[in-house]
């Protein structure tokens, strides 16, 4: 009996030290709360030819955040941060919708070219951030703060519309064609939401890029110590620049999906507060905000947890204006737990417990 207890304790201790333990545990807690609140939470049915259910809606709505968290994971792992991803999403959405036009019968610009233009806009924003951080050595928070403020302003200028003889920025531009709506909705005769497929594709591409090439190791090396990386031949400037470039691209993809969901471009609201969600998803995924290590799987789990938590808070009557406050509290707690001082206190506490056990025996 005693050997079984020792074996169970050892098993629990081994699992609890895994990087994905806390993210999965947090997700299970949120899902458990949703099940208690809504007994039919896991019920899935097909209505009007598509999958329908609470869990389907959470995964669907988490798709943009999953895509954003992939880019944010790389940036944070390299020792940086990007608070402009929400504004970049709005900018890319504005570019795409402006090029498409608002006709019921035809696109002003082909759909594929409009999406590519949006991606190019995201890449340009990522290149701008990467240049400031990697080449100009500007602190990441300050560098990305530029597009955090200017990016949404540019998106509003792009989405300007003539009213009473003058161009008024920040107007909602609508897309009337059904094929654009399929990006954020459902493909014909497909029951799974299209954003889910896009999110899976982005995660798989990132996984292959990081595991089948040396890029993943280079990013970890730069995040731990960029100076030491340079001594062994790693181009830390290029690696950092590439991380921001990828982050800009993922932000543009998320922006196009967001625009497709609402059949329009709302530069004031697309991507709003998404930078906080992306950072929170990375942190909840067990990734260190100090850089040097990353887990794509953890970030994906973190993104789904955030969306499930958002759904729970809305069910509890929390308004959209109050939601960032609760998320900010979670960020503060996670950062505090990851701090070296907290780990030192925890180590001292464990030593005291062990000493008490030794004295008792």
From TrEMBL:
* Membrane spanning residue stretches: 20-42, 54-76, 83-101, 107-128, 140-159, 196-219, 231-258, 270-289, 296-316, 328-346
The organism's superkingdom is given as Bacteria
Tell me what this protein is called. Answer: Inner-membrane translocator
The scientific name of the source species is Sediminispirochaeta smaragdinae (strain DSM 11293 / JCM 15392 / SEBR 4228)
GO MF assignments:
transmembrane transporter activity
The protein's location, in the record's own words, is: Cell membrane
This protein's major location comes to: membrane
Keyword Methyltransferase recorded: no
Membrane topology label: Multi-pass membrane protein
- Where does the UniProt annotation place the signal sequence? none
Keyword presence, Transmembrane helix: yes
Keyword list, A-Z:
Cell membrane, Membrane, Transmembrane, Transmembrane helix
Q: What InterPro entries has UniProt attached to this entry?
A: ABC_transp_permease
